[in-house]
């Protein structure tokens, strides 16, 4: 899962991104991720893994990971295409979801590019850049569709949809706010529109506001706006995240409980990303390693197997499956089998979050 961090200058992006890279997963564990300076890889926190590690006395634990891309530099005028602007928009095209950091803290020592703190104006500024870029793309699509319509009348439906998208964009609205049927949604997905990408607004508040963020009017404004776009809101204090990233797991828990928080802002962000993108994890366990794997909700057993290895998907026979809770109640895989809690699932099985699976396959 790839998330791209955007936001105006001086809102706390670098502070958050540095916290992410410091808290970051050991890159040796994630050989498939390309680690570049603008990429931070963090593991998805999952308490079930440690329970399984103890049960199997496994050598190592491999949580699943999320990649954060620092897309700093997106400013007013980016869509006009001057040099770097286009590059940033191109970077956004490559991520699955946008994390928009919005400043909700006052600090006279930190200047705001527009002279005063105003989260809704910030949101509009960035969203308009994405909207302008989408408009250009849609205009080109419309021209092409009109030409092709002469030979192929079946394209009328698509043209109507494109016109509707154009109208929405011209009103200054993001496409993710548009009501679409399932078919339309599939079509729009292919256009790779920036304003259609799922978005999480990160409201960056001051240390004092973190515990009672609802008292912060700016956070309330961001929430109101997010509702109109089916977006998620996560409240963090980037400064505190930066402090947390220096701590080990035990110190982190202690620090959070002293603050009266149940999880760090980064963990909240990761979970919001999971929810927004419809993701979940299944688990594999053995003496060598315990591991979590990310799949989309609704994936069937062979697709899940394919996450591990393409051969597993091609030669899929069945999935020996037990839910994490059943396995823990039974105490061991052998005991779970004895109690009949381990099921043999076939090709049509829809994998559930927390399933512990052993795949049987032909090579
Ligand atoms: P960027 O330009 O968006 O990357 O912003 P930075 O992360 O560089 O932050 C700009 C300034 O705001 C720095 O001086 C940070 O220390 C400060 N800052 C960032 N997050 C917070 C916060 O949560 N509270 C306060 N008071 N200051 C912050």
Gist of the model:
Residues 1-256 form the OBG-type G domain. The chain is α/β, with parallel strands linked by helices and 363 residues long.
Report on this structure.
This protein has 363 residues and is of the alpha/beta class. It folds into three domains: 176 residues, P-loop containing nucleotide triphosphate hydrolases (Rossmann fold, 3-Layer(aba) Sandwich), CATH 3.40.50; 70 residues, DNA polymerase, domain 1 (Orthogonal Bundle), CATH 1.10.150; 64 residues, Beta-grasp domain (Ubiquitin-like (UB roll)). The protein is 42% helix and 19% strand. It contains 14 helices and twelve strands. The strands form three sheets. A six-stranded mixed sheet has the order 2-4-1-5-6-7, sandwiched between helices. A three-stranded mixed sheet has the order 3-9-8, with helices on both faces. The protein has a three-stranded antiparallel sheet with strand order 11-10-12. Helix 1 runs parallel beside helix 8 and helix 4 packs antiparallel against helix 5. The protein is flat, with a radius of gyration of 23 Å. It starts with a strand and ends with a strand. The structure holds guanosine-5'-diphosphate (GDP). Guanosine-5'-diphosphate binds next to helix 1 and helix 8. The site of guanosine-5'-diphosphate has 17 residues, from helix 1 and helix 8.
């Amino acid at each position: 899962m790839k998330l791209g961090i955007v936001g105006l200058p001086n809102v706390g992006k670098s502070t958050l991104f540095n916290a992410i890279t410091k808290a970051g997963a050991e890159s040796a564990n994630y050989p498939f991720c390309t680690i570049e300076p603008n990429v931070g890889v963090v593991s998805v926190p999952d308490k079930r893994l440690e329970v399984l590690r103890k049960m199997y006395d496994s050598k190592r634990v491999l949580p699943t990971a999320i990649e954060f891309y620092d897309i700093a530099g997106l400013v007013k005028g980016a869509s006009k295409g001057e040099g770097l602007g286009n590059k940033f928009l191109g970077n956004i095209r490559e991520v699955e979801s946008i994390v928009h950091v919005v400043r909700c803290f006052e600090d006279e020592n930190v200047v705001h590019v527009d002279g005063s703190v105003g989260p809704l104006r910030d949101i509009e500024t960035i969203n308009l850049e994405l909207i302008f870029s989408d408009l250009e793309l849609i205009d080109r699509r419309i021209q092409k569709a009109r030409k092709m319509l002469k030979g192929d009348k079946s394209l009328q439906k698509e043209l109507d949809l494109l016109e509707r998208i154009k109208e929405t964009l011209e009103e200054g609205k993001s496409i993710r706010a548009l009501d679409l049927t399932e078919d339309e949604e599939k079509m729009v997905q292919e256009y790779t529109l920036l304003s259609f990408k799922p978005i999480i607004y990160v409201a960056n508040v001051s240390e004092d506001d973190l515990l009672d963020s609802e008292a912060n009017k700016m956070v309330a404004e961001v929430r109101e706006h997010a509702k109109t776009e089916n977006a998620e809101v996560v409240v963090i204090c980037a400064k505190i995240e930066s402090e947390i990233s220096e701590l080990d797991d035990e110190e982190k828990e202690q620090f959070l409980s002293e603050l009266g928080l149940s999880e760090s802002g980064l963990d909240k962000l990761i979970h919001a990303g999971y929810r927004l993108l419809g993701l979940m994890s299944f688990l594999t366990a053995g003496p060598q390693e315990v591991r979590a794997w990310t799949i989309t909700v609704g994936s069937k057993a062979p697709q899940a197997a394919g996450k591990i290895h393409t051969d597993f998907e091609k030669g899929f026979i069945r999935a020996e499956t037990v839910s994490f809770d059943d396995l823990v109640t039974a105490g061991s895989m052998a005991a779970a089998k004895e109690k009949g809690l381990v099921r043999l699932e076939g090709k049509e099985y829809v994998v559930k979050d927390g399933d512990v699976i052993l795949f049987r396959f032909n090579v």
